[in-house]
Design a protein that fits this description.
Blueprint: E1 2-4, H1 16-34, H2 39-54, E2 58-64, E3 70-77, E4 87-89, H3 93-101, E5 104-107, H4 123-126, E6 131-140, E7 143-153, H5 160-206, H6 216-229, E8 235-239, H7 245-254, E9 263-267, H8 273-281, E10 282-283, E11 295-296, H9 298-301, E12 306-310, H10 317-329, E13 331-333, E14 340-342, E15 346-351, H11 355-361, H12 366-372, E16 375-379, H13 386-403, E17 410-411, H14 413-421, H15 427-441, E18 446-447, H16 454-457, H17 459-462, H18 470-488, H19 493-499, H20 504-513
Parallel strand pairs: 8-15, 8-16, 9-12, 12-15, 17-18
Antiparallel strand pairs: 1-5, 2-3, 2-7, 3-4, 5-6, 6-7, 10-11, 13-14
Bound molecules: adenosine-5'-triphosphate and magnesium ion (MG).
Length: about 525
């Protein structure tokens, strides 16, 4: 056996016809490797080309397994045993040594070589006729990852080095293809991972746990969502601005059998009348000036999933007719197109408008309204579900404290009173904004009344007593401070007094005077 360092060059001096044939082979092989996404098929094509063009009856490509010292046969041609039954160990036999050393090996006469293993074809079969075995390493970034082994008919006048160099070039092409394939596979795995992660995040963000509120009204809403999510029924969500209609639309989608398909939103109110139809239905190339290529509409993008038509009350009458047709027949045409598109989409619509009034005024089609209003979910305004105010405030406090890196733990009693007294015309969205602002301006561990915006401070807004005496106001503030300290000290009055930098005697006097039940804070 001769061991040569593979240089990857075809030496000069080969006969012209030989060289032409080799160049033609290299060209075919580079096409075989680049024209398929499945590298295994490409490698098979490579070995078949060698058989066809160069009469190489037996060949194989062995690659290192991910971990461990094993080599497996990735592609083979003309072997008597099935490829998946053949295995080598690094360092073992000719192929194993080539992978270990990264150097090509040439065996001019196979019958004379004791280290040939004859794993792929039994010895008696293989050397029925004498043959030459050439094995070259396959490398990625100079790291050997496998080997190409070929058996050639024995010819005493063969230029072994030239042949080895030719196969060396071939092996480097295979190495390059492997590198690309591994990069693509790694990127694909990363994307699959990222996708799974994002889906999970979306699901968590929009499943029931993201919707806060356990007032009776909200519990009824959850029941309706659970009921309707399993079905394909069109849902109309109604409620004032900021009551969480979009949140509920997401919850329906992510709890439905369509959860893994797209959730596509169209803000009907935000789109000008001229744009909404092309957004919804898409257009064909040349449908209007500027339509340079076909564009899919949101209906098509939501195929298999859910289309959320937000602010449906703002849709113009001419678009309403088209929507009615999609709802009735589940089909439409792209703008400027004649082909009818079938769609499998679940529709959810939302509005904060008084639809009955719109119908009476003739700005909303009654037939479309009935098609949309198959299953209605009404979100009550926040002022009608007072128990949720506290839950939501706590939820937003935790979220924004983390987001803005503050260690605020709770909301003081007077601040809670103000939150409870306010009528929340902007509903949960307004509460969310109020708490975020409070978190931003608060540098303590507790949100106090003065951290809340002026709209909540006014007597009219909070509905608090108009005439309050200075003594009462100070008393209420003192009581709040004492209770806060007792909470922090877990009912230990001496410690609470120290927290407020006062004496035990004064602290106990005030506790009695203000009628605070200090035992309540013991834990
Ligand atoms: N029950 C709730 N739990 C948690 N967050 C809520 C809840 N209700 C509303 N929110 C939050 O309040 C904000 C407003 O909610 P959403 O956008 O769903 O309201 P909407 O009803 O669609 O309002 P609009 O009619 O103005 O579009 C969102 O950031 C949402 O996360
Ligand atoms: Mg909305």
């Amino acid at each position: 056996m001769t061991v040569t360092k593979s240089t990857g060059r075809i030496p000069e001096g080969t006969t012209a016809s030989n060289e032409n044939q080799r160049l033609a082979t290299l060209l075919q092989i580079s096409q075989a490797l680049s024209s398929t996404l499945n590298l295994k098929t490409g490698l098979h094509d490579v070995l078949e080309t060698l058989a066809r063009q160069h009469g190489i009856d037996r060949s194989l490509i062995a690659l290192k397994t991910e971990d461990g010292p094993q080599l497996h046969v990735e592609a083979a041609h003309g072997l008597s045993r099935p490829a998946h039954h053949i295995g080598y160990t690094i360092g073992e036999g000719i192929i194993g040594k080539v992978v270990e050393s990264g150097k090509a090996a040439i065996v001019p006469k196979a019958s004379k070589e004791p280290s040939l293993l004859f794993r792929a074809t039994p010895r008696h079969e293989a050397i029925a006729e004498e043959f030459t075995f050439i094995c070259v390493p396959i490398a990625i970034d100079r790291r050997t990852v496998g080997a190409l082994g070929v058996s050639l008919a024995y010819k005493p006048d063969r230029h072994y080095d030239r042949s080895a160099n030719f196969f060396g070039v071939l092996a480097s092409m295979i190495g390059q293809a492997l590198k690309v394939q591994r990069l693509v596979a790694a990127e694909h795995a990363r994307l699959v991972d990222e996708n799974a992660h994002l889906r999970q995040e979306l699901k968590e963000r929009y499943d029931f746990s993201a919707i806060i509120g356990n007032s009776g009204a909200m519990r009824r809403v959850y029941e309706l969502v659970a009921q309707v999510a399993r079905t394909n029924t069109t849902v109309l969500i109604r409620g004032e601005s900021g009551t969480g209609k979009e949140l509920i639309a997401h919850a329906i989608h992510y709890n439905s059998p369509r959860a893994k398909k797209p959730f596509v939103k169209v803000s009907c109110g935000a789109l000008p009348e001229t744009l909404i139809e092309s957004e919804l239905f898409g257009y064909e190339k040349g449908a209007f000036t500027g339509a340079q290529a076909r564009k899919k509409g949101r209906f098509e993008l939501a195929e298999g999933g859910t289309l959320f038509l937000d602010e449906i009350g703002d849709v113009h009458l001419s678009t309403q007719i088209k929507l009615l047709r999609v709802l009735q027949e589940r089909e439409f045409e792209r703008l400027g197109g004649t082909d009818t598109q079938k769609v499998n989409v679940r529709l959810i619509a939302a509005t904060n408008k008084d639809m009955e009034a719109a119908i009476a005024q003739g700005t909303f089609r009654e037939d479309l309204f009935y098609r949309l209003n198959v299953f209605m979910i009404f979100l009550p305004p926040l002022r009608e579900r007072k128990p949720d105010v506290l839950l939501l405030a706590d939820h937003f406090l935790q979220r924004f404290a983390v987001e803005h890196g503050k260690s605020i733990k709770r909301i003081s009693t007077p601040a809670i009173d103000m939150l409870m007294a306010y009528h929340w015309p902007g509903n949960a969205r307004e509460l969310q904004n109020v708490i975020e602002r409070a978190v931003l301006v608060c540098d303590e561990r507790v949100i106090h009344a003065h951290h809340l915006p002026p709209t909540l401070q006014t007597a009219e807004a909070s509905g608090t007593v108009v005439s309050v005496s200075l003594d009462d106001a100070i008393g209420a503030y003192e009581k709040d401070l004492l209770q806060d300290a007792l909470k922090s000290a877990r009912g230990n009055r001496a410690r609470a007094a120290r927290l407020l930098r006062t004496t035990d005697r004064i602290f106990n006097y005030k506790v009695r005077k203000l009628g605070i039940d200090w035992k309540r804070f013991k834990q």
